[in-house]
Every structure is written in C-alpha cells, then in structure tokens.
C-alpha cells in the first residue's frame, strides 16, 4: 500500500500529464471509507484559487518580457533601451493583467457555504478543497466543479439556466445532518477539458458490507461558473477545484490568436529594422572612409580629447554604429504599438456602443475569407414549430385535428410522443422545458393534436388524452441521445404491463433497424418534408418481453457502471437493444430561418467570403435551408459528394469527376467562368473517407488536395451529417490550406465548440442550446444577422483604420528620419541630429500621434450604411489588401520622397541660419496636411485634433524658442523659430514644399480612381452623387405554398430599405438572367438599380428561396 | 483582447466577472443599453471630401495659376538683387593672398596682410550686406556643435570658473585656468579682418562698415551676457585664459566699444550660431545707405584689405567675401522662384493630363459599370 502511495505521489509530481492516474477518488466530506472496503489514499489537489491573469507579482517581468518579445518591435526596444537607458514600460498588458488580477481576487474571495461536522459554515471560495460538500442556493454561482448530491426539489433535479441536472439515484438528503451522515466516495476521471463529458462512479457505504455503486455522468456534474436556477438549494461535492475545473482547463487551452494585421506589422518592422541597420552600417563605413585624411577627421578647429584619441578604432567604430542606431531609431515607430493598442481599446467601445448590436464583442473580423456556420440555431431560429406527423402513412396536421377523425392511430403516435416528453420530463406547470427545442415542439404539437403531457410523477409519465383520460406509463430506462447514434430511446411499462421501447431518431438511423411498418409511405413523406426544409424525425417502437427487458436492464447497468470506456460500452448496449423496430411514423418540425439570415448570407457572399454550412442534419433538410438562406441559388450547380454517390462509384472516380467539372471552366477563357456557380454538398461519411489517411498514403493525401481544390472553387459548401469533431476537422483543413485563409466559425451549440475554438475568429451565438458556444468563442453575438454588421461594417472600418494607422506610422517615421540620414552626408557623418532633441522626442508623442489616433478611431471612408448595403466593398479589403507589400512599399517611397523634398528643399531654399528649424517645420506641416488629405470623414473632432496638433507645434516651438530654459545646458533653439516665422521666403517655401510633397499622392489617388476604381471608391462616389433617399420599398414577401391547411410562412427575407443609387446590386448575376430590355444600366445612373429591381431578374435574385424549395 | 477572464463569459446574472476589458461581461453590457448619441453610434456630422478628378482638377488649375505668377515675381525680385563674391583663400599662386596662405603659422606675431582688387560693374543701390563665407568647414559636426557652454556665455560666474565638460578639449589650459569662452566653436572664431576701400583716381577711400546690428537682437541681449555686466571686463575675466587659437583675449575683441566687447561682441555671437551645412556664409558688416542719392557702393574699382589670420588650407577650405543687397525676400535666391514656376507648371500640366484621362475614363466607366 505504501508503494501505491509512493507511486501515486511520484506519478503526480514527477511524471507528465499522461502518466497520472486516470481516475481520482474523492472522499465526500473527507471521510475515510470503512476499513477494508478500500485503501484510503489521501490525495492532494490544488486549492480553488483561480488565476486567469497571465502574470503573478514576481513573474511579471520575465514572463512579460518573454510575451513581449513575441513582437519583434519589443525585442528591438529592449536593445534600444539598453543602448539608450530609457525605460520602456510595458504598461498596457500590465494594466489589463492587473484588472484580471482584481477580477480573480473578487472571485477567489467570494463566500461559499460548506457543510462541516453537520453544520453549514462559510468559507472563502479559494479555500475550497476537493471532497468538500457545498451548499449552493438559488441564483448562486458554483464555485468549482461539483457533483450534485441532493436538491431541494422533490424530483431530485436542479436547473442551471436551461439545462437540468439530476441527483444520482437513491441519493436524497434534506438537511445538513443527513448530508453529514453520507459516507461515500466518488471515483471519477482526472480533469479534462471536455465540458460535456464526465464519467464517474459513486460508492455509498452503508452499514451493510457491500457498498452501493451508482454511475455518474455529465448530467450529475455542475460546472464552475454556472448559476443555479429554479431550485432553492442543492448539496454537492467538490470534485475539481481551481485550475482543474473544466472551465479553467478550457480557458487555458485557448492560446492567443494573433491577427493578420499584427503579422503584417511584424513583417514591416523587420524591413524597417533592416533599413535601420543598413543605414547605420552605411553611415559608419562612410564615416571612416571620409575620415581617412586626418585633416578631415580632426581639423584644427575641432580636436578630439585625449581619451577619445586613445580609444581603439574598433571600439570607436562600434560606438559610432550604436550612435547611428540611436540616431535613426525613430524610424521604428515606437509609439505605433501604443497607438494600435489604444486604437483597439478605444475602438472596441464603438462596437459595444453600437445600438444595433449591443453586446460583448470586439471587431477584429476583417479579412475573413471563410465563414463556417452551423445551421440549427445559427442560420435558423432554433425555434421549432411542429408541422405534422405521419403515423402509419396517415398525415396529421395540428390544424386538421378539429375534424376529429381517426383516433386509434393517433393514439399510438401520441403514446410515442408522450414517452418522449416523459424522457425529458416536465415541470408541473403547463409548459414544458427541455434543452432540446425539437422536443418542445413535439410536445406542443401533440398538445394541439389533443394529447397533453402532464408531468412525470414518481417515475410515471402522465398523459391526458383526447377523452380527458389520464394514461400512465412507467418510465424505466432512458437510452440517451448521442450524435453518433443519432437516436434515443425510452423503455416504458404501460398500464397494461407491457414493456415497450420507443425510439426516435434520424431517418437514416431508424430505417435500417426497422423490420415492419409502412416503411415506404413514411419514407416518402420524410423525403418530401426534408426537401421542404423541415426537420424530420422517425419514430419506431418495439415490444419487449419481460425476459428481453431483464436482459436489456442488465446490459445497461453494466455499461453504466464501468469507469473505463463507458461511452463505448453504452453504445454497444444501446446497439444491442435498439433493433427490430416496428416503424410508427415520422414527425416534421419546422425550424424557421433567423431573421435576415438570407440577407446576411448573401451579403457575406457578395463580400467575397466563402460560406460553408456545417450541420448534423439530413442532406435534404440542410440543402433546403441552404436554398432558403440563399446559400445556393437556383443557378447554382450542385455537386454532390455523398455516401449515396460514393456507394455507386468509387470515391476516386467521383473526386476526379468533380475536379474535372469544377476546374473545366477555368481553362475556357474569360466570360464563362462567372457563369458557373458551384455548390458542393458533402456528407460526414464521405468526408471521413476523404480525410482518412488510407493505406496508400500519398494518394489519400491527394483526395484532400482535390477536395480542397474543388471546394475552393465553389461559392458555397454544405457539409451535412457532420459530427462535431468533423466540423473542427474541416476548419483545420481549410486553415492549413495553401493560402492560409482567415477563417471564421459561428455556431450556437455545444457541437460547434470545437469548430469555434479551431477557427481564427470564433463567434458564438447565444442561442437556445445554451451558452456553451458563446462561452468558448472570441466574440458572442445574439443573432446571426449581427454577423453582417460586425464583419461588413465594424470589421471593415476596423481594418481600414488599423491599416491606415500602421502604414501612416511607418510613413511618418520615414519622413521624419530620412532627412537625418541625408544630413549625415553634410555633417561629416558625425551623428549630428538634424532636429532638436525636444522635437525628436515630441514628434511621435505629441505632434503627430493624436491626429492619426483619432483618424483610426473615427474614420469612415464610406458611411456605415453604405458598407452595410454593399457587401462587395468587403472584397476591397479581403486578403489583407491594405497591408500588403506593394502598399507598404508605396507608403515608404512616399515617405522617402517627402523626406527628400523637405531636405533638399530646405537645403536650396534657405540660408543657413534657419535651415535646421525649417526642416522640422515642413515636416510637421506636411504630415498634418497629408493626413488631412487621407481623411475622408471630417468630424469636428478631426478638425480639432489635426489643427490642434499643428497649433500645438507652433505654440510649443514659440515657447521652446522663446524662453531661456534654465535647466538646459544649451540654448540652441533660442528664438530660431520666431526668426524663421518672420521671414517671408520661409513661408513661401513652406507652402511650396508642402504642395510638392503632396502632389504625387494626390495624382496617384486621382489616377487610380479614374483608371481602376475600387468598389469602395465607387461607393464613395455614389454616396456623394445621390443624396436623395428613395422611399423604402414595400417588403417583398413570398408566400410559400404548403397546402391549404398550412399557415403562410414567409421565407423571403425582407429587403433593406434602399437609398438612392447605393442599392445593393447583385454583383454576380448571371448574364443570362438579365432581361434583354434592361439595357445598359450603369451604377451611376440612378434609374438603373430601380429598374433592375422591377425586372424579373431582380425578383428572382431577391427571393429565390420559395421557388427552389417547392 | 479575447483573453478576458473566463468568468466573464458566464451565464447571465453572473456578475462577479467584472468588466475587465473590452470583451467583458455580456450581462452588464446588455443591461446597460448604449446611449444613442451621435458620437457613440459613429454618426457625427462629417464632411467627406473625396479626391476625384473632378475636385482635384480645379485645384490643380488654381495652384498652377497662383504659383506661376508668384514664381515669376520671386524670380524677378531675386534677379534684381545684386551680389558680388570674391574668393581670397589664396590657393592659386596668382592670388594675392597666396603667400599668406602658404606661410601661415599659429605662432607668428606679425599678422600677414594681403589685398584683393575687384571691380563692381553695377552700383549697389540699397543697404549692402557684407558676408564672409567658408567652405568645407564642418560647423555642424557633432563634436563641434556641442562644444560650448551656453551658461558661461550667459555670464554665469560659476560656469566661467568651471566650464562645462562639453568644452573638452578646449576647456582649460593647465596652470593657466579655464578658457573663456570655452569650446571648439569659440576657439575657432573667424578672425580675419576685412576692410573695403573704394579706388577712385588712385586714391583709396575706405568704405564705412557698420559692425553692429549683425547679430539677432535676442542673442545679443538675452542669450549672451558678460559676467558682471559690461563694466570692467578685464577684471571680470580675471583668472581665465583666452582660447588657444585666439590672438586676443575675449575682453579685447572690441576694446573701443563696451557694448560690443566680451561675450556680446557681435562677430562672436554670429560665429557662435553654428551653420547647418559645411558651406556657409555669415554676416560680417553692413554698409549703410548714405542719406544722399548716391549708391551705397558705386560701380568701379575696390580693394579688399585682408588681415589673414584664419587658416583653411589644411582642410581644403575656401574663404570668400560676399557683397549683397537684400530685398523683402532676403538674399539672392533664384531657386525659390524657379521652384515655384516649375511646380506651378507641373500642376498645370497635370491638370491637363488629368482632364484628358478624366474624360476618357469617365465615358468608358459609365459603359463599363453595367456587368457589375
């Protein structure tokens, strides 16, 4: 036993994570098990302290430094810092971390009720230990991961927001004393980050010899941070504490994602660093070449000191090099990071302030190329409405029930549904709560058909049937749903004593197990419903003989109690039990599209993003939703890559055929390329086959290649029948593809979490399926439609702003420092700075940083409305366009040009006295003016800041030069500025030089605009041109024909009211769809868009949903 | 930014997370509906100028139209300025100062003099400024620029006794005392004496040179001050040493005029304002216009008498004397006028080019936009 302890300890402290014991034993209330039952091994667990801040007090400096060095600039700063001995404090991350520290503290110290010696006592959260029994009251937050022991509710459950949790059977305590008397241990797995998986076993020791073992699953586990609802209080035992809680583990696994902007910034910095070093080297070399003659080196008027003379040449050269580095170091925009951080920080407020989407989030969504979206709950409302059910081939629609026909058949159906309800039990109140909206819809639908589910009482489900009789079914077993089986079952005992197994699930998982029933009719109905975009479920049942039932029970219990491979064994057991079904029928539930989902998808499409829908639904259902949401259009040529097809042909053939189809138009020249709009449908099974690294190795890899190639050329891809992990796989696949596109994943459910974590930008929708997705996401939004504004408006603006900010910083520093470099040629390479130190210091801080910061905060090159209306503008900034090398080069050249203009302008135009100060003068005036030119959005703040900066420069110069500063040991600048201002030619020269330095940029801009205007520029023109807003169009609705009895559902998405000429024009309309009479309609003619909308093409464009789905 | 505490991303109503940063608790943000102010919704009234050919074209035309006349005006003004320049370095052996330049020695007690003869073709009408110019003289060398002590020059007695370290190696002379004024700049004060005479009919009429008013007023009255006032300078500078390369101590720079002696000697002040480029000119004297109608400097023969004290040959320097009138725009500077004319023309030219392009593409665009 000692050895065992030793081993445990060793493995805990010395070995890595994988060598740890794979289960832990928790002694509830820290009580030893009765002697002989089991060895009592006191185990050590971390306390319940939470550290989310990155740094602690003592590791702040080294750890922060390491973090900071990930940015090249910071490493550079350190070097400069060592040379210059100026302290560069990493304030911003430190501050944020301090805030986190504070948040941690408040959490760690919040009080918790703990049961000790039969009494509840209060303690601080961070003192909680594994094994403590905790009392949590309503609306309190769970302090760590807990296993529910007892609930104040009679049915032994508790609610955490929408999800319910169950007390393990046979455990029920009412008072502290009872809890204290509990003598049990819990064995469970070691902490792991999967939030929805938990395997454990509780051993309850009673006076009898044999301890009672009960299984624990994720339904017994309460996660840290969640809040207790609708339950007065619960008792629970702590099993994972502190940094071992599942939330914390999840938190840790999220690494910082670095944005493309930052990557570009780093790349540019490297270039500038190279420039800096080469400048310094060039100057050092030239200096020594120039100094070769001693008369130049030390003319009679300028001798060195003895010390300097005696210094070896190598050291002198090195110090010279360093001096040059210091002199030119301003070329690296030191304040850029600060400004960028400030911009991010302040800019995020604009998003939180945004009325239309007030929520927690932050816009860093630019440059996204792939959008992966979940279907249910993301594209759709996840607000299910029961449409119909089909029993034995007869269709029942809730409305039609008034006729009061056919009772017997419905009864059976009703039973089925009743059982389903039973599984998820209800509250005594009239409405039914479930984490699955489908079930809610089913229960509601059944109620409308006349069968009301009353409640689950003492293991009996009660159903009020049409004749107001209460039918009772005893609920015996629940075979839980999982996404692999895609079905769930219940075993019930009817009042007549029959054992019945009812199963509902996806058609594909039910039909193979069906032995009798009206399969054909039901199948046909299911297909039809699926095509209409309804979610279909099949229901089947099986009569169990008592023997069979006993067998099933045994199987299930064995599986449930096993600690290892419980999932697998359960699956096997389920598989053995769920067979030989009699098909009852099918249900159809409609999941409505989210408000403006189609609009959003369309916008994303037009913005040049590729939208992939990843769903677990049936192909037909998913495809219908895709049509409705305009992911596929009527013109889209659908390519299928499904199991059905691969069964007929070999995967290889299908793939090669696909690639031929898709890639063919490419070889054909020009025009036909746009005609083909491909949509790809792939299902999970095929995807597995494609991704599987088959025995042939390289050829399997080529499938991936082909798949990527094909999917890249498709405008929309639908992946159906996806397991959660496959979603992540797809994202990973795309992420790793050649171009390394930026991916965005959006989803609402637990099954999307992996995908959200995998993508560059993970967005969670706070949907009905709980908040797991939102919790794991980078940003959370309430509705899918907000994605549009977030990406197209905030993302776009953010990107434009930050790109301009970055480029401008480089520009202005080149502009500032390049004259210094030129000046070295005129001052004997003596490192004489061209500017006064005060100006050197203040240049970046006060003279030039505020305008650009403000620019980066409020610039709107196109108005937000326009951005929102014309998604194609997004294409202009896709793929990091504004931070690519040509643009960077352009800015740098511009900077060099301006620097040359200033320097030589001053050189030729001025007499010597005012030369130095004039250089600065131009610099500042021009930078200000240039920025003014680039600003398209002049608010009073811009005016204030830009002119304010110039004014500040002037005032500062006046002050600086106007007073003898007693603390300075030199007075070089005294009165220089005033002297200069008083001279006429100085003013003339300033005007001239500013004009010259701005000329190329203006000419370039105008030429580009005239020759090849980007969509953005066109939009600017349009907003400028037409100011009259046309009245908003009446909303176009498309009635959906579903038969006389069904309510009309509007799938067509209402158009956004258009403004004048800036109507969103279909950018990729096929030429064939254009009416002949439409004639040439330019964007510029204001009648164009309106005419277009009246044309058939316009209508077809805006409302393809119904046409395609019927 | 997404690295907010995970507690912040919890259920509604869980508020302990606190707004740690931008991505903070949804609950709190949600409950606090953002203000609908123009600023927060980014809807401030704004002026959106856009650079298009349409707006830029007129601007270019206007710039062209304004710049060209200004340029012409400047050019004409600059051309009206009379300037005469004479090099007296004495590099060529034909030069009058050749022997002085060749035989220069720091130790010689007898100053070497030479005379340069020149002819002014045209009379100089208004005030004439007389400059000396040096080439290849790096007054902007870092070591040189910082080698001064401004507080000493401002008359601070402590700095006088103990000059700043920056002045090394022109700070003190062993056994003699601190140098006043210290530093390389002061040490290398230009000390040639230049005198101008008009030669008429063989007789030599000296031209009156005004040596005051050549320095900035602020420099003379604020920045530079003698220690202990302008009274007894000899006593004030007691215990200091003259700069090594000077021939006279600082209090004898202009013994005649106490307002121009010591640190406030204007020649000295002018020299102390270092030039930014290795070729520079500094104001030496002003020739005031006489009251009557005769030109300041009539055309004719002149002789420039130079006391050659300042060696430049060792560093291949040049010494010049420049006589120049000035206008409202300062000295002769044809470059500014030319630059204005050039820029104006370029703008004009660009305006024409843009005009053509604009029209060409405009018509093309309106037809090319349709497929989109």
From TrEMBL, chain A:
Enumerate the UniProt keywords alphabetically.
ATP-binding, Cell membrane, Endoplasmic reticulum, Endosome, Lipid transport, Magnesium, Membrane, Metal-binding, Nucleotide-binding, Phosphoprotein, Translocase, Transmembrane, Transmembrane helix, Transport
According to the UniProt record, what class of enzyme is this? translocase
GO molecular function: any one?
ATPase-coupled intramembrane lipid transporter activity
Topological type in the membrane: Multi-pass membrane protein
Instruction: Give me the residues that bind ATP, please.
Output: 374-376, 439, 481, 504, 535, 615-617, 721, 727, 751-752
**P-type ATPase C-terminal domain ranges (all copies):** 774-1014
Q: Which GO terms describe its cellular component?
A: early endosome; endoplasmic reticulum membrane; plasma membrane; recycling endosome
Q: Which CDD domains match?
A: P-type_ATPase_APLT_Dnf-like
Do the record's keywords include Membrane? yes
Tell me the residue numbers annotated for binding Mg(2+).
374, 376, 748, 752
The domain of life is Eukaryota
Membrane-crossing ranges are 267-290, 321-340, 838-858, 888-910, 944-968, 980-999
Q: Which GO terms describe its biological process?
A: phospholipid translocation; positive regulation of myotube differentiation
Look up keyword Transmembrane helix and say if it applies. yes
Q: Subunit structure, briefly?
A: Component of a P4-ATPase flippase complex which consists of a catalytic alpha subunit ATP11A and an accessory beta subunit TMEM30A.
Q: Which family does it belong to?
A: Belongs to the cation transport ATPase (P-type) (TC 3.A.3) family. Type IV subfamily.
- The name on file for this protein is Phospholipid-transporting ATPase
TrEMBL record, chain B:
Record GO biological process: phospholipid translocation
Q: What are the UniProt keywords, alphabetically?
A: Cell membrane, Cytoplasmic vesicle, Disulfide bond, Glycoprotein, Golgi apparatus, Lipid transport, Membrane, Transmembrane, Transmembrane helix, Transport
| Topology with respect to the bilayer | Multi-pass membrane protein
Tell me which GO cellular component terms the UniProt record holds.
apical plasma membrane; endoplasmic reticulum; Golgi apparatus; transport vesicle membrane
UniProt keyword Transmembrane, yes or no: yes
Subcellular locations according to the entry: Apical cell membrane; Cytoplasmic vesicle, Secretory vesicle membrane; Golgi apparatus; Membrane
Q: Where is the composition biased (Gly residues)?
A: 15-26
Please name the InterPro entries in this protein's record: CDC50/LEM3_fam (IPR005045)
Q: Does the entry feature the keyword Transmembrane helix, yes or no?
A: yes
- Membrane-spanning residues: 50-76, 335-357
Give the region (Disordered) as residue ranges.
Answer: 1-34
Q: Which family does it belong to?
A: Belongs to the CDC50/LEM3 family.
Identification of the protein by name: Cell cycle control protein
């Amino acid at each position: 036993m000692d050895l065992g302890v030793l081993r445990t300890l060793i493995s805990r402290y010395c070995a890595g994570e994988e060598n740890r014991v794979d289960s832990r034993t928790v002694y509830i209330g820290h009580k030893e098990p009765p002697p002989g039952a089991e060895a009592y091994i006191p185990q050590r667990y971390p306390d319940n302290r939470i550290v989310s801040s990155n740094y602690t007090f003592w590791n702040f400096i080294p750890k922060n430094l390491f973090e900071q060095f990930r940015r090249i600039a910071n490493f550079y700063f350190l070097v400069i810092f060592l040379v210059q001995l100026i302290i560069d404090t990493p304030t911003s991350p430190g501050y944020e971390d301090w805030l986190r520290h504070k948040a941690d503290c408040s959490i760690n110290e919040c009080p918790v009720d703990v049961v000790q010696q039969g009494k509840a006592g209060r303690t601080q959260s961070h003192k909680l230990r594994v094994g403590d029994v905790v009392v949590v009251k309503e609306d309190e937050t769970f302090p760590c991961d807990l296993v529910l022991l007892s609930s104040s509710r009679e049915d032994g459950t508790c609610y955490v927001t929408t999800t319910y949790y169950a007390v393990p059977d046979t455990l029920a305590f009412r008072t502290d004393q009872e809890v204290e008397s509990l003598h049990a241990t819990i064995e469970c797995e070691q902490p792991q980050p999967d939030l929805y998986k938990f395997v454990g076993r509780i051993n309850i020791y009673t006076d009898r010899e044999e301890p009672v073992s009960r299984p624990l699953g994720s339904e017994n586990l309460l996660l840290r941070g969640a809040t207790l609802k609708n339950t007065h209080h619960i008792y629970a035992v702590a099993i994972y504490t502190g940094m071992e809680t599942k939330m914390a583990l999840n938190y840790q696994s999220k690494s910082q994602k670095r944005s493309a902007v930052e990557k570009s910034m780093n790349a540019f910095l490297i270039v500038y660093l190279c420039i800096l070093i080469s400048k310094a080297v060039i100057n050092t070399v030239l200096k020594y070449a120039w100094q070769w003659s001693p008369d130049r080196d030390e003319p009679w008027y300028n001798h060195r000191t003895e010390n300097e003379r005696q210094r070896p040449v190598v050291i002198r050269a090195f110090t010279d090099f360093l001096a040059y580095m210091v002199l030119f170091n301003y070329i690296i925009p030191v304040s850029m990071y600060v400004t960028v951080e400030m911009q991010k920080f302040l800019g995020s407020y604009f998003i939180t302030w945004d009325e239309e989407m007030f929520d927690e989030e932050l816009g860093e969504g630019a440059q996204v190329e792939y959008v992966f979206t979940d279907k249910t709950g993301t594209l759709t409302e996840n607000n299910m409405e029961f449409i119909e059910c089909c029993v034995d081939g007869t269709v029942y629609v809730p409305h039609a029930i008034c006729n009061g026909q056919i009772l017997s058949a419905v009864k059976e159906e009703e039973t089925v549904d009743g059982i389903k309800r039973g599984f998820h039990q209800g509250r005594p109140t009239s409405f039914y709560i479930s984490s699955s909206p489908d079930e809610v819809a089913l229960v509601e639908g059944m109620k409308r058909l006349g069968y009301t589910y009353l409640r689950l009482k003492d293991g009996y489900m009660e159903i009020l049937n049409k004749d107001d009789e209460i039918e009772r079914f005893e609920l015996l077993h629940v075979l839980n749903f999982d996404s692999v089986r895609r079905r769930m079952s219940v075993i019930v005992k009817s009042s007549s004593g029959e054992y019945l197994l009812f199963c509902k699930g996806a058609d594909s998982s039910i039909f193979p197990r069906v032995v009798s029933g009206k399969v054909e009719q039901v199948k046909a109905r299911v297909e039809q419903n699926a095509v209409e975009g309804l979610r279909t479920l099949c229901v089947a049942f099986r009569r169990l003989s008592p023997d069979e039932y006993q067998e099933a029970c045994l199987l299930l219990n064995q599986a449930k109690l096993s600690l290892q491979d419980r999932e697998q064994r359960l699956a096997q057991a389920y598989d053995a039990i769920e067979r030989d079904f009699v098909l009852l029928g099918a249900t159809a539930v409609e999941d409505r599209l989210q408000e403006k989902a189609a609009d959003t998808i369309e916008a994303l499409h037009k913005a040049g993003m590729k939208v992939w829908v990843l769903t677990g639904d049936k192909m037909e259902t998913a495809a219908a939703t895709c049509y409705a949401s305009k992911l596929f259009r009527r013109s889209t040529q659908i390519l299928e890559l499904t199991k059905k097809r691969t069964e007929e042909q070999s995967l290889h053939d299908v793939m090669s055929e696909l690639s031929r189809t898709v890639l063919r138009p490419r070889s054909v020249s020009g025009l036909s390329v746009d005609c083909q709009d491909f949509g790809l449908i792939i299902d999970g099974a095929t995807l597995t086959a494609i991704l599987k690294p088959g025995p042939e190795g390289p050829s399997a890899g080529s499938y991936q290649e082909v798949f990527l190639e094909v999917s890249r050329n498709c405008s929309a891809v639908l992946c159906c029948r996806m397991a959660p992990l496959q979603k992540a796989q797809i994202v990973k696949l795309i992420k790793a593809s050649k171009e390394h596109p930026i991916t965005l994943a959006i989803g609402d459910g637990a099954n999307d979490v992996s995908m959200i974590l995998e993508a560059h930008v993970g967005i969670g929708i706070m949907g009905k399926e709980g908040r797991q997705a939102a919790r794991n996401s980078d940003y959370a939004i309430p509705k899918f439609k907000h994605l549009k504004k977030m990406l197209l408006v905030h993302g776009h603006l953010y990107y434009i702003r930050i790109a301009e900010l970055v480029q401008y910083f480089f520009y202005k520093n080149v502009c500032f420092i390049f004259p210094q470099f030129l000046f070295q040629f005129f001052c004997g390479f003596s490192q004489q700075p061209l500017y006064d130190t005060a100006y050197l210091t203040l240049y970046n801080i006060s003279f030039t940083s505020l305008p650009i910061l403000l620019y980066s905060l409020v610039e709107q090159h196109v108005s937000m409305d326009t951005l929102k209306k014309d998604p194609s503008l997004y294409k202009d900034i896709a793929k990091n366009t504004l931070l690519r090398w040509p643009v960077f080069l352009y800015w740098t050249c511009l900077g060099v040009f301006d620097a040359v203009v200033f320097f030589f302008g001053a050189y030729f135009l001025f007499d010597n006295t005012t030369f130095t100060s004039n250089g600065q003068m131009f610099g500042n005036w021009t930078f200000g003016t240039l920025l003014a030119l680039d600003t398209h959005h002049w608010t009073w703040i811009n005016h204030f800041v830009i002119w304010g900066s110039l004014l500040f420069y002037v005032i500062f110069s006046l002050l600086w030069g106007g007073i003898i500063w007693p603390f300075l040991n030199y007075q070089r600048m005294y009165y220089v500025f005033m002297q200069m201002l008083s001279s006429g030619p100085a003013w003339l020269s300033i005007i001239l030089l500013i004009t010259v330095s701005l000329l190329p940029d203006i000419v370039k801009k105008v030429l580009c605009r005239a020759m090849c205007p980007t969509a953005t520029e066109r939009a600017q023109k349009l907003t400028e041109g037409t100011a009259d807003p046309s009245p908003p169009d009446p909303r176009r609705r498309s009635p959906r024909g579903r038969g006389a009895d069904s309510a009309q559902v509007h799938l067509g998405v209402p158009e956004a009211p258009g403004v004048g000429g800036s109507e969103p024009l279909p950018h990729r309309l096929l030429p064939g769809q254009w009416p002949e009479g439409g004639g040439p309609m330019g964007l510029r003619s204001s009648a164009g868009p309106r005419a277009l909308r009246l044309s058939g093409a316009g209508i077809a464009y805006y409302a393809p949903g119904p046409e395609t789905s019927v | 930014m997404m690295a907010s505490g995970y507690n912040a991303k919890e259920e509604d109503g869980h508020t302990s997370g606190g707004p740690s940063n931008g991505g903070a608790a949804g609950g709190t943000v949600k409950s606090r509906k953002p203000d609908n102010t123009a600023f927060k919704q980014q809807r401030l009234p704004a002026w959106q100028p856009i650079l298009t050919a349409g707006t830029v074209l007129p601007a270019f035309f206007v710039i062209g139209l304004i710049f060209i006349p200004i340029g012409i005006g400047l050019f004409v003004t600059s051309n009206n300025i009379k300037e005469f320049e004479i090099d007296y370095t004495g590099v060529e052996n034909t030069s009058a100062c050749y022997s002085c330049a060749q035989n220069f020695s720091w130790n010689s007690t007898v100053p070497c003099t030479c005379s340069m003869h020149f002819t002014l073709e045209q009379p100089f009408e208004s005030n004439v400024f007389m400059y000396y110019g040096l080439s290849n003289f790096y007054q902007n060398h870092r070591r040189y620029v910082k080698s001064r002590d401004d507080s000493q020059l401002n008359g601070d007695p402590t700095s006088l006794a103990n000059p700043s370290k920056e002045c090394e190696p022109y700070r003190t002379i062993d056994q003699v005392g601190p140098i006043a004024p210290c530093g390389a700049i002061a040490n290398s004060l230009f000390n040639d004496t230049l005198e101008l005479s008009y030669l008429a009919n063989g007789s030599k009429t000296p031209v009156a040179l005004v040596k005051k008013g050549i320095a900035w007023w602020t420099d003379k009255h604020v920045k530079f001050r003698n220690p202990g006032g302008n009274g007894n300078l000899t006593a004030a500078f007691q215990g200091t040493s003259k700069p090594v390369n000077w021939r006279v101590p600082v209090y004898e720079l202009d013994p005649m005029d106490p307002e121009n002696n010591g640190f406030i000697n204007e020649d000295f002040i002018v020299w102390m304002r270092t030039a930014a480029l290795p070729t520079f000119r500094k104001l030496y004297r002003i020739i005031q216009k006489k009251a009557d109608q005769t030109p300041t400097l009539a055309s004719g023969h002149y002789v420039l008498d130079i006391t050659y004290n300042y060696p430049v040959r060792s560093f291949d320097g040049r010494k010049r004397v420049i006589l120049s009138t000035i206008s409202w725009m300062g000295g002769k500077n044809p470059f500014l006028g030319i630059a204005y004319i050039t820029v104006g023309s370029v703008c004009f030219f660009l305006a024409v080019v843009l005009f053509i392009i604009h029209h060409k593409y405009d018509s093309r665009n309106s037809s090319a936009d349709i497929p989109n």
